[in-house]
Amino acid sequence: MVKRAMLALLASVGCVQADYQCAADSDCNVGEAGRCELDHRCSQFDPTCATLRRYSDHSGPTSNVCFDDHVTPQNLCAAGQTPAIAEGCIADVCTTLPSCCETGWSEACVQQAQLQCSNLRCDTRIAITATRAGKTELWDVRFDGTTWTGVLDARQSVLAWLAPAPGTTEPQLAGFVSGALKLDDRALPVSTKHSYLEATSVDFDRDGRATAVLGYTESGAAHLEVVKLDDGTTRDIPAAGTTRLSWGDVDHDPFPDGVAAAGNANRYELISGSELETHLRGIDDRVSSSMTGSTSVMPTPPPVRGFDWIDFDGDHLLDVVAYGFSVDLHLAKGGAIGTSTLIRIDCDPPGASNLAGCNADAQNAQDFAGAALPGTPPALIVGTHPKRALYRVQVGGTPVAATRFPYAFPAEACGADCPPIIAVVARDLDGDHALDVIAIDSDLHIYTALAKDNLDTAALTLQSALQLPTTSTAFLAVRTSVTGAPRATP
Amino acid sequence: MKRLVLAALLIAAPAAADTVDDHLAKVRALYDRGDFVHARDELLAAYELEPRPELLFALGQVELNLGHFDAAIERYERFIATGPAADQIALAQQAIGAARARLSEKPIVAPPPPPPPHRQWDAIDTTIAALGGATIATGAGLMIYGQRLGNDHSASLAAYERRVTRANRDQWIGAGCLAAGALAVGAAVLRWRIHLVDAEIQPIAAPHTAGVSWVQRW
After folding, report:
1. Relative to the CA of B93, which of A27, A159, A291, B47 has its CA 20 to 30 Å away?
2. pLDDT exceeds 80 at position B200
3. Which of A16, A27, A58 faces B146 most closely, judged by CB atoms?
4. pTM of the full predicted structure?
5. Do the chains contact at B158 and A30, CB–CB below 8 Å?
6. How far apart are CA A490 and CA A2, in angstroms?
7. In this complex, do B171 and A13 lie within 8 Å of one another by their Cβ atoms?
8. Using CA atoms, how far apart are residues B147 and A479, in angstroms rounded to an integer?
9. Predicted complex: ipTM over 0.90
10. A7-30: per-residue pLDDT in tens?
11. Residues spanned by the domain of B208
């Protein structure tokens, strides 16, 4: 009895196992730029760590260990998550695209996972923000492997899929209502003075927290707003580009970078994450480019339609493609993606050669939509505007040339006047580990081209998938935000 | 000399009867073996048969050898009262003197065996153990206080760091106190275990000397 009491006393008093639990960044006031991490332990700035952060003393077993937010994603079908741990098929994905395990789980990573992970089958969810003068419609479009559905969303502007919260599988559908970013189950207050244009998920600070980066303008000035979805805290970052925001890797450091259009124009900015003097993350967006087309006779070029990230040249680095007045492919060469382009596609039909000789009116009218189609060889899916046409464009050779293969549309009553394709998405719809093509026209008619039905590039065909019951037609722009969740059925 | 006197008396004694002689023969044999008790019995039996004066002298000798000095003196005086010869009276009186001298001697009291050594928990042990116990209690208190201090996660990391530093210091001191207290208690127990004492007052009684002695052994 006495012996037990003595042992209990010794066990209870032991040495102090210092394990401080913080609740807020302000608790972490030791070292430089203290931060309270998700596990309630403090970290501080340390330039020798990949994430530039090291756990502080008194952090239990993680004391003085470099902070690392790598996780095994619960949902490989959703982009915008923290970098993945290279295990299982993710290791294959990260061999192809190291940034998936080093920078963040981006759209390009989802596509690679669908190609390389034999057990992965995703449903497909596309949040559509369709705009025309004085009109915005938000649609929640889904394909469960069998059936397409489309539901008009009641939110007011910008419908987007955000990544699942850490440790969960369900992506979160978000959209703006007056004074709030409304998620599925809650609303985060946002400023009513801001005109919000974008909502994206990205592990911008590499802190592993659920983070949204919103793009907005206020009095003509563009900003990015970093929102921590777990506690609603926000911070603003002045930025030149805030629309069509897309995340990938520009400079090959451990922090995600992006690309965004500058307003409703043809200029776009490369957004490189950078460490500010305060050791908060900021952006360096001094590198910009413009889709000027091959001629510049048009006084007001059409705006950027979108961006894509793809390893086009097989160097395992993400390259970026911009779609709009032309299709510009920037390769990751050297330290970072720059303004020089590997190839520029223009004209109708789209091509990369003899651009000076193409019809100037046709050239000036172009506002391409598109999507990258990774594979062997990689390709671009390019939709023309204003005349409806969709092409698979394969780029290669020396000198670099673009070879196009047209898609045949199903017979429709509109004939030659059918509306153009203004949004394109590439995802594996049917779970055969080949990327399929989803094309959306300006009347919100959705077409699909399954890879298994289009093995012959000389006879590519589209099938009608779903006509959204919109009351409007002739939308000028369709912004797609794509995600998914694993599905059990093949 | 006394044996010679007894032998002379026995030899000189006339044989009054067979039975008296038989007894006297036994007396001689018993006397030679030192069996004075049976020798006395045989002499008394002979004296019953025939009360010869010299038998009283022989009885006095036997009583003297048995240490019955008063009885010996009484036998010798009865022998003198029978009016023997002058040399025999002198012998009897010499024997009486010897008996009286022995009577005046006091017996030597044998000292009792010393008690077995035993352990003794004394006041010093109690003091050492009490101090040790108090030190252990202080050490345990410091350890528990340090532990609680270290488990207090309130306020900022800097404040926590200060608390942990203090907690570690307190726990080291506490550990030192625990060790010192345990040593003290152990020392008290050890002192008690090896502190063997047989201290007591012992009387001493011997011819020509008397007193007490104080004996203590570690």
Report:
1. B47
2. no
3. A16
4. 0.75
5. yes
6. 65
7. yes
8. 58
9. no
10. 555 555 556 678 899 999 999 999
11. 108-117+197-218
